[in-house]
Structure formats: C-alpha cells, structure tokens
C-alpha cells in the first residue's frame, strides 16, 4: 500500500506547482479540483441536488455553469457548506478508488485547497501545507484567473485560515517567491521515501 501525502494550502499558494513537481518525480497526484469538476459534471445525483439547491440554470445543456455556482456560493458560508456536502462525499469515494488503483506506488498525493475542511485529512498519512503570504496569494490568483480582488477574497473567506491549516500539517513548504521551492520538495520526497516501510531494503535482495 502507498503512503498518501496530502498537499494543501490556500488559493494561490502554489499547490498545483508543487503537485507538478511531485508528478515530475514520478509520484501520481489526485487533483481534487479537476476530479470534483469531472464528478460534478457526470454524477446525476449531484446534478439533481445542485439544481434543487441553486436552480435549474446551474446546468445549461448538461454543462455546469461554474461562474453561476461560484457567485451563488462564495460569500455565503451556509451555501458553501451545502454545496460541499453535495460534492465532497463523492470526491472522497472517488479518491479511495483512485488510490486503490495506484496501490503499487510507494507514494501518492492528493491536492486540495480545502483538504482539511472537506474531511479528507484522515484519507492521507502525511499533510503538507504549501504556504505563501496572503498578499502574494491574492496577487497570484488575480493574475492567473483574471479575477477581482473581491472575488479572490470571497474564496479565501471560504477556506480555513493559514494558522489553523498549519496546525493540521506535518510539513510546510514555503513558496513565497523568495525561498527556493525545488530543494524543499526534493527533501520532502526523500524524507517520506525513507519513511516508507514498503520500500524494498537492499538487504533483502
Ligand atoms: C465553484 C466552482 C464551480 C468554481 O469553479 P472555478 O473554475 O471558478 O474555480 P476552480 O474550481 O478552478 O477553483 C479555484 C480555487 O477556488 C477555491 N475553491 C474552489 N472550491 C472551493 C470551495 N468549495 N471552498 C473553498 N474554496 C474553494 C480553491 O482554492 C480552488 O483551487 C468549483 O470550484 C467547484 O465546483 N467547487 C466545488 C468543489 C470543490 O470543493 N472543489 C475544491 C476541491 S474538492
Ligand atoms: N514559485 C513560483 N514562482 C512563480 N510563479 C508561481 C510560483 N508558485 C506559484 N506561481 C504561480 O502562481 C499562480 C498560483 O499558483 P497555483 O495555481 O499553483 O496555486 P494553487 O495553490 O494551486 O491555487 P488554487 O487553490 O487556486 O488551485 C500560478 O499562476 C502559478 O504559476
């Protein structure tokens, strides 16, 4: 069985960059954002429940209207909770199936901005938090998504604070545009590989 590494961090912290580095190192990573979108798009029960909650327009010709859903939920904590309760249980089940398929790998990852909030902490053996100062994250997200500061801040408000997130994490990777990123990722992978009791010892060969 693989060691499962959770990769979390607020919007714009650089989780996707870290996940790509994991991928380059041969570690498969489950990208929750992408999979949540796929599942939301294809699961008829999620479709039904989102339509009942948000209105029929949330799907147009069978395609999820993402900007409508985003403007419905962000800025309204009770709506975020309801939407998450519809989608996240299916994502958890999907991750379990995915991880079982990759059971032969030494290390696998799961990336999610809201890994702890979504109740996925117990799905992973180690949790890595990717950290960047708030202002750096806001600027990155505005630039990447062509969003307004207000839109980004609403998403940040729907996420756990960095302080609380850090208290759940086993490791922190600093991605502040100053601290070199790649050496931190390499060191972490090397450390976790050493912790992997399923690695074949040279003495057994
Ligand atoms: C609301 C949706 C349609 C908006 O889509 P959009 O393309 O605008 O944003 P995208 O999915 O790329 O998300 C960008 C970032 O927003 C933040 N974010 C997304 N969903 C959430 C959420 N439920 N709570 C807090 N932050 C969130 C994350 O930092 C994420 O990386 C989409 O995010 C969604 O379906 N969210 C619910 C599923 C979910 O919780 N995904 C997060 C990982 S499980
Ligand atoms: N070390 C870095 N150097 C330069 N650009 C970076 C660095 N880290 C992240 N970025 C850029 O900042 C933006 C946000 O990074 P990324 O998409 O990895 O964040 P994220 O944590 O996955 O965010 P989200 O929660 O929205 O998915 C991207 O455009 C990315 O290319």
TrEMBL record:
- What InterPro entries does UniProt report for this protein, alphabetically? Depp_CoAkinase, P-loop_NTPase
Q: In the UniProt record, does the keyword ATP-binding occur?
A: yes
Q: Which GO terms describe its molecular function?
A: ATP binding; dephospho-CoA kinase activity
Principal subcellular localisation of the protein: cytoplasm
Question: Which leading EC class covers this enzyme?
Answer: transferase
Q: Name one GO cellular component term.
A: cytoplasm
EC assignment: 2.7.1.24
Function, as annotated: Catalyzes the phosphorylation of the 3'-hydroxyl group of dephosphocoenzyme A to form coenzyme A.
Name under which the protein is recorded: Dephospho-CoA kinase
């Amino acid at each position: 069985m693989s060691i499962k590494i959770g990769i979390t961090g607020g919007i714009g912290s650089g989780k996707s960059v870290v996940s790509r580095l994991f991928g380059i190192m041969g570690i498969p990573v489950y990208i929750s954002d992408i999979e949540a979108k796929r599942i939301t798009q294809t699961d008829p029960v999620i479709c039904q429940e989102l339509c009942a909650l948000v209105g029929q327009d949330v799907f147009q010709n069978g395609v999820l209207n993402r900007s409508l859903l985003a403007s419905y939920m962000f800025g309204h904590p009770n709506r975020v909770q309801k939407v998450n309760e519809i989608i996240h249980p299916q994502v958890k089940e999907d991750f379990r199936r995915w991880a079982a398929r990759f059971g032969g790998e030494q290390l696998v990852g799961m990336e999610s901005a809201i890994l702890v909030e979504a109740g996925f902490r117990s799905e992973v053996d180690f949790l890595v938090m990717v950290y960047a100062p708030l202002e750096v994250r806001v600027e990155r997200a505005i630039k990447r998504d062509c969003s307004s500061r207000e839109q980004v801040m609403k998403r940040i408000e729907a996420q756990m604070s960095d302080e609380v997130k850090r208290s759940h994490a086993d490791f922190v990777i600093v991605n502040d545009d100053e601290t070199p990123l790649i050496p931190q990722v390499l060191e972490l992978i090397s450390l976790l590989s050493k912790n992997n009791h399923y690695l074949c010892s040279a003495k057994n060969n």
